[in-house]
Automatic annotation (TrEMBL), chains A, B, C, D:
Domain of life of the source: Bacteria
Xref: SUPFAM superfamilies: Homeodomain-like
Segments passing through the bilayer: none
Organism annotation: Streptomyces pluripotens
GO molecular function, one term: DNA binding
The name this protein goes by in its record: TetR/AcrR family transcriptional regulator
Lineage: Bacteria, Bacillati, Actinomycetota, Actinomycetes, Kitasatosporales
This protein's UniProt keywords: DNA-binding
Signal peptide residues on this chain, from the entry's feature table: none
Amino acid sequence: MVGTMDGTKQQRRGNTRQRIQDVALQLFAEQGYEKTSLREIAERLDVTKAALYYHFRTKEEIIVSLFEDLTKPIEDLIEWGREQPHTLQTKQEIVRRYSAALTEAEPLFRFMQENQATVRELRIGDTFRDRMRGLKDIIIDPEADLVDQVRSLSALFTLHAGLFVMQDLEGDPERKRKASLEVALDMVRQAHEHARRDR
Amino acid sequence: MVGTMDGTKQQRRGNTRQRIQDVALQLFAEQGYEKTSLREIAERLDVTKAALYYHFRTKEEIIVSLFEDLTKPIEDLIEWGREQPHTLQTKQEIVRRYSAALTEAEPLFRFMQENQATVRELRIGDTFRDRMRGLKDIIIDPEADLVDQVRSLSALFTLHAGLFVMQDLEGDPERKRKASLEVALDMVRQAHEHARRDR
Amino acid sequence: MVGTMDGTKQQRRGNTRQRIQDVALQLFAEQGYEKTSLREIAERLDVTKAALYYHFRTKEEIIVSLFEDLTKPIEDLIEWGREQPHTLQTKQEIVRRYSAALTEAEPLFRFMQENQATVRELRIGDTFRDRMRGLKDIIIDPEADLVDQVRSLSALFTLHAGLFVMQDLEGDPERKRKASLEVALDMVRQAHEHARRDR
Amino acid sequence: MVGTMDGTKQQRRGNTRQRIQDVALQLFAEQGYEKTSLREIAERLDVTKAALYYHFRTKEEIIVSLFEDLTKPIEDLIEWGREQPHTLQTKQEIVRRYSAALTEAEPLFRFMQENQATVRELRIGDTFRDRMRGLKDIIIDPEADLVDQVRSLSALFTLHAGLFVMQDLEGDPERKRKASLEVALDMVRQAHEHARRDR
DNA sequence: AATGAATGAGCGTTCATTCAT
DNA sequence: GATGAATGAACGCTCATTCAT
């Protein structure tokens, strides 16, 4: 149907799997998971639907594979965080690295943010929940005041907001990201200092 | 929700429209918009799919009607806010009332939070975006530092987080809601004071 | 919904039945029978679908009633024709009157012309077939050459064509109708004269 | 039509598309377009409805494909006619070939004749109208008397009548077709001669 | 003379998935 | 490393029709 200029089906050297992931992620992020059909993905790649099934067993497996490939940094981050002392420095480093990880795989996280209902029903839902719990355990002081616990969690959420929600704030994305990070760091600091003072 | 004392077809005296809205909202919030079929809604109500079409012209109209019925308070809130002076008191009152409005129509807002990709493609998407922009304009000082703008916006977002995301924080919902509100108020105060100091 | 200026539902003095027929015929002729729904008819009249069922037992009965009301002249015409001698004058008078009758109830005949497949399955199909057969028996000389039989029948068909098909011929409708009539009369004359000569 | 020697699922080697067209045309011609459902077509072929959608994107595309495949001869005919001198011989040859083309694809033309209201709303409607206009331009002398213009057009219409309407005239179809052709040729001749005489 | 509320059947269409080749 | 051809299930939606009021 599409037919490229030189007649070749353009670089198809075993990288189809990757190309499927790329296109799928783009469409999932743009339109949502349910509204994106395998037909659509296949058409963009100029292959048949059946070809997708050569590389992935189900539609869900496509998103799962993306999740697994792209959230490795966050898994590592949590593992790293668990072994550190619960100091302010650690917490703030977590926030910094989390911000970086979010930015790195922005489309995936945008997708997860905007399709929570879907994600919850997918296999990745539980995994993701566990991760967030892991982060929470590192960043929150279990003996702290509830208000300060909320403040800490909200710091993480501020990072999400910075990426996905504040698009109609003027300013270039990188500056906004840095501003969000600064706010988040500040919130973590406040929560941490209150906790120490209260003891 | 509906409660049937006996096994009969229960009071069907013109309240079907409302019953459809109730069931639909519950299912939309639980499973998402696309994964909830009209068949499912109809079955729960023990009517046929066609009956739904007597009361609503399309599936989308069901969610639109819910949105219109349930977000009136927020519309009013914005209108009120526009006429107030841009003082700290005003901003904090906005936050307080917004928190209350969110809580009031929790299932709808949970739905919107968790189905953003879907909502964006629905008619309500634009309306909602406009509202958030309205809120932003009241709560943000356009001359403030970008960091403080983010802080203000993030305050609103903290309220969302308090309702929908922090479910696995221990503590009863009402206490968590109050804690979120406190954090949000504090963020608004900080943003406001920075702005004044800088002048 | 529609609501007229003075608040009254405009002249509804028992003429609803007629108004249903009018609107239905217009829509049937415009869009075809199957593509016209009772909902559409009801909406145009600003009544409910159920109201239609007060006046007609089924959708089919609406078209049947129109057929019966509007094709009486053709029935009469056939009855008259049967009692006349099979002269050229009779045949030509039939053609003239048929042309007039077609013009009189143009929308109905346009509908029947353009929805033959539908009409065939409706109750009126057989009736109509019988009528055409009646006309044929009057206008055709059974002993004539097949070519002349066709010529006679085609004369009738020319009248149809004049009304419904030749819309993109320039000239005002009345002139075209007269031209069609002239051609039809001429064809009948030719057929008749051949038959006489051959004897 | 298809003919199954044994009760098995018969030769399904890439001829399904054609088989769909065959069955669809038969049913469309018998019952009309709207009254023929895809379910019905699928059942006759012993495939599922979804299989139809592998071969055609919509129901409309089935009829469009039939139209395009079967009316090619008429398109060619018009093209040929445009390049000929406007002599009587040309006009009569057009009529002869048109008659042959109609006969060749009788079911399709019967369908179009009996479902004009439907066809008008389909994509093929405009194309068909254009063709008829093309034929008209060849066969009609624009300076001729309106009566003779009608006579020429009516000649074409006689051919239609010969195929579809005169079924209850006795005589075998081929003889009737020839008789219609003869009448049509005669009408064209009369129209042509009048035009010459008037000059 | 009409409405409000509903039904049952069916429609065209789309989807993820399968499997022989 | 793919395709061609198909399936089964479901979907949103529309229709003519019914009936108590």
